[in-house]
TrEMBL record, chains A, B:
Signal peptide: none annotated. CDD domains: NUDIX_NadM_like. It comes from Microbacterium dauci. PANTHER family: ADP-RIBOSE PYROPHOSPHATASE, SLR1690 PROTEIN. The lineage of its organism: Bacteria, Bacillati, Actinomycetota, Actinomycetes, Micrococcales. This is NUDIX domain-containing protein. Residues 12-142 form the Nudix hydrolase domain. Coiled coil: none annotated.
Length: 224, 224
DNA sequence: GCAAAAGTGTTGTGATTACACCCATGC
DNA sequence: GCATGGGTGTAATCACAACACTTTTGC
């Protein structure tokens, strides 16, 4: 039996993957952009990404392009949305966009050439529809921080409650009550207190580590 | 200036759109499947869908294939996920999957040939990875019903609180307290009481209509 | 001692739950 | 009348926010 394509394999549609990578730095949310070296939009800043190879899964493409940018594995990676409007590029391109979180220390360790990290509130003009894509990724991030534990994805293995609170505050853009914040996260069962403290200023703060028995976010029946 | 494709236009990857269409019938969630008329998986049941035309937006393709199945416009339509694993089809196919809600009366009015509606708890074996896709769509539906008003998408323009409660109960798979349910939805501001009542058995029940000033679900910065 | 962050205690408020109870209709 | 679903009332509970207060460090 033969397989009969209904459209020719050359359908005029190409498939790309881009990734919105978030990290945290000095209480700000930052993301890496690459400068385009060819048309269209040569010279403009764009999200890191690449074409999907016929023998490579979408997730793998996202991981690969992410590694090529930050040099290391993310602490969280999730598909965001498929953008495929006709006018978003001179040729017809469907972009499967992912979003990722990388820890602050990981991001700092692997700075690359022609990659620059920008504060999300001070982004330059972006190529294609990437401004809209970043807006949507930010919306998802702010939403998801309210009902999951993804904020931990920004932090190194050991951290204080003030560190974690700072992450929440920079994502949500508002101050949180330290006392109530402490109780909320203590009751969530996602943190394991250690016997170590961070000293240096004022009263030492206890260091916590993440309880890896609980997922950063519920993903439903999708394979992880 | 010339555009230089990095991969040839014939990348060996084709782009399709499929849609998981939900409706409600006798307290059960049902969805339409089409029988495949060619290989691969000839004769098996599959989600309605089609190839993306180079001149057609993804949303438009979803609406079109949905119309070809149910014959009418959905009350809710949202992108679900892009499935693109290597092994999911003999050829490399990236499927942008949407999910939709259609009102019970709309679904009943437009029954089509070679389309059959199945109870989601009694699905046959499906082609490709469509079983997994339906599982994920159901998970999203059950989640979203908890924090949005999409359940209204199943109902005709006028309905009783018992109708609405039945929708919630069939989605969530559990009974809800009628008294508390009433207060919750009355306080949500999404319902407008009418002066009409449904009679026929016991005490007549007031008919409500949906307040179209509030969206069925918050979609963030994505264009609707 | 003093400032400041770490950490604890207390109180009020609003949403949710469980359930008792009344109302209006068909039979 | 009586069974049944429509609709109201109410008290207990819980999560959360606001804020006063104590503890422990650096200087």
């Amino acid at each position: 039996m033969t397989i009969t394509p209904i459209t020719p394999a050359d359908s005029g549609i190409r498939v790309a993957v881009s990734t919105v990578i978030f990290s945290q730095r000095d209480g700000r949310i930052v993301l890496p952009l690459v400068r385009r070296t060819r048309d269209p939009h040569e010279g403009q800043w764009a999200l890191p990404g690449g074409w999907v190879d016929a023998a490579e899964n979408l997730d793998a493409t996202a991981s690969r392009t992410l590694a090529e940018t930050t040099g290391l594995a993310p602490s969280y990676l999730e598909q965001l949305y498929a953008f495929g409007d006709i006018g978003r590029s001179p040729e017809r391109v469907v972009s499967i966009v992912y979003w990722a979180l990388v820890r602050e220390d990981v991001a700092r360790a692997a700075e690359q050439h022609n990659v620059e990290w920008f504060d999300v509130s001070e982004l330059p003009e972006l190529a294609f529809d990437h401004t809209q894509i970043v807006d949507y990724a930010l919306w998802r991030l702010r939403n998801k921080v309210g009902y999951s534990r993804i904020a931990h994805g920004f932090l190194p293995s050991h951290f204080t409650l003030a560190d974690l609170r700072e992450v929440y505050e920079s994502i949500l853009g508002k101050r949180l009550d330290p006392a109530n914040f402490r109780r909320q996260v203590e009751n969530s069962g996602t943190l394991i207190p250690t016997d170590d403290f961070r000293t240096g200023s004022h009263r030492p703060a206890r260091l916590y580590r993440y309880n890896h028995d609980v997922e950063l976010a519920e993903r439903g029946p999708l394979p992880h």
